[in-house]
Amino acid sequence: MPCYKIEGVTPVVDPSAYVHPTAVLIGDVIIHARCYVGPGACLRGDFGRITMEEESNIQDNCVVHGFADSHTVIRRRGHIGHGAILHGCDIGEDALVGMNAVVMDNAVIGAESIVAAAAFVKNRFSCDTRSLLIGSPAKVVRKVTDDELAWKQVGTGEYIQLANRCLTSLVECPPLNAIEADRPQLQSGQHKTKS
User: Fold this and answer.
1) H or E segment at 148?
2) Residues of the chain with pLDDT > 70: what percent?
3) Which Pfam families does the record match to this protein (predicted)?
4) Would you identify the CATH topology of the domain 3-146?
């Protein structure tokens, strides 16, 4: 993976975490146990610190950054969807930020909350535990239901498993030029399907 030290500060990645080889880590980035960082993600700790707590994930093409002296935190089991942008914010434990959402500086997303896809969370916004945020600018529309939280937790569990799957079996290879007979279909731990 492209990993860069700046002014003597080197990213830290726990050995049980998986960072895709095309993700970029710069400077003051700390990735704890069983985290997953997807292809094309950029975690730029060249001003403030970025911390991924245990079992959190940042998916493909996300950007994480902050101003000087900021601390962008994705708390334990935080789930950051494809293409999201986090800038100097605090994402609560077991919260989800949807695809292409933006969470700005000093915003605090409460534990077990869901930020809808494409939502824009303004600077200094704060919400309680289990808030559902929708819109641009994002507003709390109601509490997250038990079913919604369970759905989120299943998805996060899939990414915890994916970190391990990638550590143990993902290898770069050339593509085949034809589909092989009896081609296997990949199965996740939670959503098994048959081909």
Assistant:
1) helix 146-169
2) 96
3) Hexapep
4) UDP N-Acetylglucosamine Acyltransferase; domain 1 (2.160.10)
